[in-house]
Amino acid sequence: MNEKALDKIKKLLALAKSTSSEHEAANALRKAQALMREYQLNETDVALHEISEQHTKRANNAQKQPKWASLLAYTVCQAFGINHFINWRRDIGSCITFYGPKDRVEIGTYCYEVLAPQLVKARKEFQAGLNKRLLKKTKINRADLFAEGWITSVYRKVEALVPTEEEQQLIQLYQEKNHPDLTTVKNRSAEQRKRDMGGFFEGLVQGRKAQLNAGVAGAAQGRIAKTE
């Protein structure tokens, strides 16, 4: 698909909608339609140009994702009205792919890349501080509960962005066109045993310290994870 042609068509259609001059609007629309005929594009093709995807390394490489890793991705998607799936790429390895409106995908991916290392580091430090006499399985379970608490604390501060009906339809069309074989996978949930739940509550406390840096985060800070 010709990206330059699509960009030009989008600009012409935007001009046709925004200008107060009937002559200018008609001229812009006529040029846009001519380009669409030339490149055999329809209105759906042009609209789908607004939807994109971005890949980044996963917070956890396990084939069966722990619940905390899925919660992190879900939190980012809720904050920016985008979708995601996990996959493997030759250039990245185990990765997560966010898809939706271009600008929000870019910022959402940035947020994930900032929050994921913080969560992984906090989980690792919590696990390292557990009693060495505990079974490895118990340590992992408590660390997973800590991570769930951490991201739950962040999620509570998220201002969810609900996509418009049009955006939802475009995202669905994009998925059907580009990733028709996506399937649902089960998470690895931590056992919520009473003696291990202290890890979850410690995670809630530590999650309040999650933060985003400056830069692209400027637009994100209002939606997710501020330092208290």
Question: Would you mind describing this structure in some detail?
Answer:
Strands 1-3-2 form a 3-stranded antiparallel sheet. It has 2 domains: 3-48, no CATH class; 52-220, no CATH class. Strand 2 and strand 3 (93-101) form a beta hairpin. The N and C termini lie far apart (46 Å). The mean pLDDT is 89. By secondary structure, the chain is mainly α. The protein has 9 helices and 3 strands, in the order H-H-H-E-H-E-E-H-H-H-H-H. Helix 4 (67-80) runs parallel beside helix 6 (136-155), helix 5 (102-128) packs across helix 8 (198-207) and helix 6 packs parallel to helix 8.
In short:
The longest helix is centred in the middle third of the chain and has 27 residues, at 102-128. This protein has helices at 3-18, 22-38, 43-48, 67-80, 102-128, 136-155, 165-178, 198-207, 217-220; strands spanning 51-57, 83-89, 93-101.
